[in-house]
Hints:
Layout: H1 3-15, E1 21-23, H2 27-36, E2 39-45, H3 56-73, E3 86-92, H4 101-104, E4 114-119, E5 122-123, E6 133-135, H5 140-183, E7 199-200, H6 204-207, E8 222-223
Parallel strand pairs: 1-3, 2-3
Antiparallel strand pairs: 2-4, 4-5, 4-6, 7-8
Amino acid sequence: MNYKNMIVALMLGSMMLDAKYVSIKNEHQFFDEINLVEFVIACFLPKIEYDKNFDRSAKKDIQLLQDVVKSTAMSDPYKKMLRQEVAFLVVDLSKKSLQDLSEKYPMNSSGMPQFLLFKDGKVVSTLSGQLAQLIGFISKKDLMDFVDEFFGTRLDELVEKKEDDLEKKRELDVAKYQAYAAYRYPYGAYAPYNSWGPYAYSGYTHFYPYGYGRFGYGFTHVYIP
């Protein structure tokens, strides 16, 4: 791999972080999360009584829905470009620590899961004043379409800006690399090679801690494949 490609790979790798997917444990954490990022997609799981009449198939459906939410969070552009701006939350209203949230936000009475959107910590409404909500055991496409309907334009703008900034950074890093390479001597630990072959005189600061110069007793070199 040449050094230009290496620079690009390292930059891309630094952006490949885990998606923002959070299973909420308590009410305090919920409010922290919706205020931490600009856009939040919250999945409210219905309150279920786990008694002898409990329908085990319902638990399976709920688990599948959580997988849908996590899979969406792990999809582009949410996983990479928008990780700092978008969060996907799962709120299980069966937990006592979360049941008060059903009183703070209108919940459907069908006993089905419900998705709500938040922007800057506030729940999103439609132009008619109704809550922007999605109800039921939906698919990944349904969820992505729901997000796109209300946040799509703004998210596209953010992605475009981040791509432009990344391209400018690539160009700047390549220009710096070419400037360092022109010297052939890596003063201050710059260029990683020289004109005599694959070996490099490494920077004085790192490899000459006692103050020796390149021609002093501390001379060393590093092989660069």
